Amino acid sequence: MKVGLAAEEDVPEGGMRCVDLRGRRYALFREKGTVYCLDNTCTHLGGPLCEGTLREFVVQCPWHGSRFDIRSGQVVGPPARSAVRMYPTTVEGGKVWVDLP
Ligand code: FES
Questions:
Q1: Predicted pLDDT at 49
Q2: CB-hemisphere CA count at 13 Å for 57?
Q3: Which atom from ligand 1 is nearest to the alpha carbon of 46?
């Protein structure tokens, strides 16, 4: 199901935004003009990825430094071992649309 999670201008280039929907929190990122969406919860011990730091398509968890590729959710740096869920995302009509299960 496609859901409008944010206005396009609410996700700054090189930045991120936390979005709550139906009791769940998502992390939106924009790098090089493209918007990406991950589950907000780090797979290590649950740190909030939308409060981390973003550099070159990699978000670093603010709690213990795990790093995830925002394009896939794959782990690129420990201590996390499991990928975080990634959701297909498009920008249309000034809104960020995320394909949620
Ligand atoms: S909770 Fe994210 S690295 Fe530990």
A1: 98
A2: 10
A3: 1
Please tell me the distance between residue 1's alpha carbon and the centre of ligand 1 in angstroms. Answer: 29
pLDDT tens profile 19-30? 999 999 999 999
Specify the CATH class of 2-99 in words. Answer: mainly beta
On the question of a cis peptide bond just before residue 79, with omega within 30 degrees of 0, the verdict is yes
For ligand 1, the distance from its centroid to the CA atom of residue 79, given in whole angstroms, is 7
User: Domain boundaries in the chain?
Assistant: 2-99
Q: What is the pTM of this model?
A: 0.96
Chain centroid to Cα 40, Å, comes to 6
Atom 4 of ligand 1, nearest CA residue: 64
Ligand 1 within 6 A of CB of 80: yes
Separation of alpha carbons 51 and 62, rounded Å:
7
